[in-house]
């Protein structure tokens, strides 16, 4: 019996990335989870990522440190207030201050380097183009462009030994559909974290865009979110 193909799976510890890891496992991949300590104010998500990687049987879970506070420019990495209590129309109305400049490009580039070392042709990322906060690096055209670039950039790809495929299994799903899929695949959402502005104990605020989208998803799925919110 041939060994399972390897895949690098970007894992933040939230609903989307956790479900994406579960999809990769379902599809028969040996999963190498990759998370980032990038100076984010919600660093508690890394503990959630550790829990999820262990629960879903990742072969390895690597946490890279890249301090994006050196650039700033985002409410997640700079002294900028996290927006709260925005309406769905406001959330969908433009690119918010929680956008981290070039974050997915940086993360995917690191995943690409690890994939080449592992001789893994598959990278999974939980980007979503429906229930999301307007980030430009979550769009299908961005992922397609990155995949084309990836196959021009790697020695193994140029030599014909590796073909990179960027998998985005959630990109056209609503948050409710993602939650239902994750539950079907055994994701324990009690282990996840989504909030951009948790308190010191890690409790989610319940008012930032990420919390509101998550709560909306659980509500539309017909389930209660298992997390305890500050309000």
Summary keywords:
globular; Rossmann fold; 8 helices; 231 residues; five-stranded parallel β-sheet; alpha/beta
Task: Please trace the helix and strand order, writing H or E for each element.
Answer: EHEHEHHEHHEHH
Spatial order of strands in the largest sheet: 3-2-1-4-5
Oligomer: single chain
Question: What percent of residues are in strands?
Answer: 5-15%
The coarse silhouette is: globular
Q: How many structurally independent domains? A: 1
What name goes with the CATH superfamily? Answer: HUPs
Question: What kind of sheet is the major sheet?
Answer: 5 strands, parallel
CATH topology label: Rossmann fold
Distance between the terminal alpha carbons, to the nearest Å?
52 Å
- The helical percent reads 25-40%
At CATH level 2, the architecture is 3-Layer(aba) Sandwich
Query: What would CATH call the class?
Result: Alpha Beta
The structure class reads: alpha/beta
Task: Kindly state the number of beta strands.
Answer: 5
Low-confidence stretches: none
Question: What does this molecule look like?
Answer:
With about 230 residues, the protein is an alpha/beta fold. The protein has a single domain (about 5-220), classed as Rossmann fold, CATH 3.40.50.620. The protein is about 35% helix and about 10% strand. It contains 8 helices and 5 strands. It has helices at about 15-25, 45-55, 90, 105-120, 140-155, 155-160, 175-185, 210-220; strands at about 5-10, 30-35, 60-65, 120-125, 165. It has a 5-stranded parallel β-sheet, with helices on both faces. Helix 1 (about 15-25) crosses helix 7. The mean pLDDT is about 95.
